[in-house]
């Protein structure tokens, strides 16, 4: 794994490496790359603004945030982000994190599919929203230089991510139509995802 892109570094330590290993094992390569890119986008956004944030918490949450789209962790009743929050709580219990920190990891994952959170209120949740929005639908890409975008996509290629992710969300929408993914699909979100400027580089 490349641990630095455009001067932005991945945190060191057991928790970060464990999250990376689990994501690489259970996500397909396109989704794994997306999770890593989401971290780098969010971290770059924070550093550009001089925001202080918990790098380990953010990285672990970014690497776990979409794993409940994968069959081993998919819930047939819960929206994928809520199932992902439960997965994060189980994973971080294994790391020995205290309850409050486990709650935070779950919260970041649930909130990344909710309305925007102000960084003044919850900086790590905002970073995951920024990172996932930029990488999935291209929302907010103008905040990142073309050079940064190119370096990040070169380090972690898209690998047909947009069409793969649209298919995953369509599946969520079909089986759980009232979930946030279902609302996005119903609102025509696919065209933004498939038209993401990251795929035109």
TrEMBL record:
Coiled-coil stretches noted in the UniProt entry, renumbered to this chain: none
CDD domains in UniProt: HDc
Pfam families documented for this protein: HD
SMART domains: HDc (SM00471)
Residue intervals of the HD/PDEase domain: 27-103
Protein name: HD domain-containing protein
InterPro entries membership: HD/PDEase_dom (IPR003607), HD_domain (IPR006674)
């Amino acid at each position: 794994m490349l641990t630095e892109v455009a001067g932005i570094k991945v945190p060191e330590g057991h928790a970060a490496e464990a999250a990376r290993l689990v994501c690489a094992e259970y996500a397909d390569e396109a989704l794994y790359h997306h999770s890593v890119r989401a971290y780098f986008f969010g971290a770059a956004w924070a550093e550009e603004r001089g925001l202080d944030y918990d790098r380990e918490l953010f990285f672990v949450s970014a690497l776990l945030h979409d794993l409940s789209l994968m069959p081993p962790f998919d819930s047939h009743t819960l929206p994928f982000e809520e199932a992902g929050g439960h997965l994060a709580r189980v994973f971080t219990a294994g790391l020995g994190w205290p309850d409050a920190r486990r709650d935070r990891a779950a919260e970041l994952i649930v909130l990344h599919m909710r309305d925007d959170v102000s960084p003044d209120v919850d900086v790590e949740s905002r970073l995951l929203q920024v990172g996932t929005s930029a990488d999935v639908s291209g929302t907010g890409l103008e905040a990142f230089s073309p050079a940064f975008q190119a370096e990040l996509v070169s380090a972690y290629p898209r690998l047909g991510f947009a069409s793969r992710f649209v298919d995953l969300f369509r599946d969520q929408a079909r089986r759980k139509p009232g979930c946030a993914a279902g609302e996005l699909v119903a609102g025509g979100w696919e065209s933004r995802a498939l038209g993401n400027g990251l795929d035109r580089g």
